Amino acid sequence: MRMLVLFTVVVAAAAQNDKPKPHREQFRVIYEWQTIDFEWETPEDRETYLNETKYIPQNVLISGINYYEDKLFLTLPRMLTGVPATLATIPTNQNDTTAPKLKPFPSWSDNKVGDCAALQFVQNIEIDRYGVMWILDNGRIGTLTHRPDPKCPPSIVLIDLKSDKYEMERIPLPLDIINPNTTYLNDLVVDNRDGDYAYITDNSAVDPGIIVFRRSDKKIWKLRDSKSMSSTTEAAIFRINGTTVNLPVNIDGIALGPQFLTEDNQVDRTVYYCPLASIHLYAINASILRNESLAEAGDGSLRPYVVDLGMKASQTDGMKMDSTGTLFYGLITNSTIAEWNSTAADFSVGQRTIARDPNYIQWVDRFTFDDRGNIYVVINRLFNFVKNQVSTSDVNYRILRSTTGLKSYVHGEDLIPPSGHHDAAATQTVAASLILLAIAHILV
Ligand SMILES: *[C@@H]1O[C@H](CO)[C@@H](O)[C@H](O)[C@H]1NC(C)=O
Ligand SMILES: *[C@@H]1O[C@H](CO)[C@@H](O)[C@H](O)[C@H]1NC(C)=O
Ligand SMILES: *[C@@H]1O[C@H](CO)[C@@H](O)[C@H](O)[C@H]1NC(C)=O
Ligand SMILES: *[C@@H]1O[C@H](CO)[C@@H](O)[C@H](O)[C@H]1NC(C)=O
Ligand SMILES: *[C@@H]1O[C@H](CO)[C@@H](O)[C@H](O)[C@H]1NC(C)=O
Ligand SMILES: *[C@@H]1O[C@H](CO)[C@@H](O)[C@H](O)[C@H]1NC(C)=O
Ligand SMILES: *[C@@H]1O[C@H](CO)[C@@H](O)[C@H](O)[C@H]1NC(C)=O
Ligand SMILES: *[C@@H]1O[C@H](CO)[C@@H](O)[C@H](O)[C@H]1NC(C)=O
């Protein structure tokens, strides 16, 4: 069955009339599923997995999405039992929109439950400008069951997609900073400059924060600001498609703005984030998150640097920024996909609805861009999943696509500070390496 659905596009007319708008196409359904099925190695495997309840179709939910070279990567967090793989791919283009089968990535064995060399619980991934996939593996499975099971240490897993070996480099997170029983590595943005950083939202119910991971020396630290990173009681209970949910979920969506030059010619960028149970959007400069000493300073140390950008019409799960500073995000209770051009107007007046449909836009989860100007979004009716009321005779998961002509923030422009200025941080690093060299010399 081939089905393409057009949505009503409701664009606020105000302040947009005389400026040329980039060509925009409406969102269409490119894929939809009632339940998720896989490309099995043999037909018997499927039967065995079903028999042994290692595959329970209604327990498999699509959450995150990413793109690389004509493949869409989908994440399947193991919130319940019976999820045979936690990361998988489908082709970007296929004529049939109905329920393509997912292919575990990198392989079936790399998704084996209980094998700590394999992926256990992947909520989100990012693919950076060099084709490196950054995977958040919580290690803990069954997060929505009565007995969440921390099978393996929470880890960041890197895969170089340019090599077809798809070897996994696993970096377990230090247990003195990350509690494997409570951490919830939710989403991340990657900042490919001066050592490659990931800024990760940890929506732990007891200790929410932003985890910073620097790839060059594999160092991590965690920063907290309870005011902007915690759920608010007013926003925890909400209603969508006739279902009321109570989800006091902490810091969740995260996005990264384009590089800018500060007054003293340093490169910086804005990090945007929001708790799920909140209607505020917050911002902080990346240079602040990169300052490790603020992690030691404890709660409250970030407070002076956090900016409340204002309110949205509703709660938001995932968001994504393009390379020039336009943010895409969902408004859950309004069945809406919205955008904000951060270079054109303040958040409080610059938000636009780009698609609204109560039947097709039921819980906007994550977004991705491809390399030809398309944006994709996962719609997954998460409210039914968390309430254990998924009906396998309904369409539960959809991927929508629109052409915007935009590309992901990871491909944004690199700014080079004007010459003649000394980069203080770089000078410090050089000085530090000189000291190390001197020590090395003494040791020799
Ligand atoms: C699955 O269970 C059915 C019914 O118990 C049985 O007939 C079948 O042989 C089993 N299949 C496998 C692959 O174990
Ligand atoms: C989709 O259909 C078109 C026209 O029928 C055909 O040319 C194309 O090869 C098909 N693509 C795939 C991926 O099957
Ligand atoms: C995690 O939970 C297990 C089992 O309850 C406990 O033994 C362990 O000490 C906990 N770890 C931490 C870091 O709290
Ligand atoms: C980031 O830093 C610049 C100055 O370098 C400042 O103008 C801006 O307000 C800061 N942004 C946030 C979100 O604090
Ligand atoms: C990091 O934060 C500390 C504590 O606020 C401050 O003293 C220091 O100057 C900051 N470092 C940088 C490089 O901004
Ligand atoms: C969005 O949803 C909220 C809560 O359901 C409602 O109060 C608000 O009026 C809606 N906004 C729009 C623009 O539809
Ligand atoms: C954002 O606003 C800037 C300045 O008005 C404009 O040049 C740019 O095209 C806008 N971007 C999008 C994606 O609409
Ligand atoms: C919920 O969504 C389904 C599927 O789109 C629709 O048929 C139904 O009418 C909706 N129910 C409510 C109460 O909005």
According to CATH, the homologous superfamily is TolB, C-terminal domain
Shape: globular
User: Mean of the pLDDT scores?
Assistant: 91
Radius of gyration: 22 Å
Topology-level CATH name: Neuraminidase
Report the uncertain regions. 1-20, 426-444
Count of DSSP helices?
A: 8
CATH top-level class: Mainly Beta
Instruction: Say how many strands there are.
Output: 30
Write structural notes for this entry:
It is a single chain. The protein is mainly beta and 444 residues long. It has one domain: TolB, C-terminal domain (Neuraminidase). Helix content is 12%, strand content 33%. The chain is built from eight helices and 30 strands. The strands form nine sheets. The protein has a four-stranded antiparallel sheet with strand order 1-30-29-28, with no helix packed on it. A four-stranded antiparallel sheet has the order 2-3-4-5, with no helix packed on it. Strand 19 and strand 20 form a beta hairpin. The longest helix has 20 residues, at 424-443. The radius of gyration is 22 Å and the shape is globular. It starts with 27 loop residues before the first strand and ends with a helix. The structure holds 2-acetamido-2-deoxy-beta-D-glucopyranose (8 copies). It is found in: Secreted. This is Bee-milk protein. Its main location: secreted. Belongs to the major royal jelly protein family.
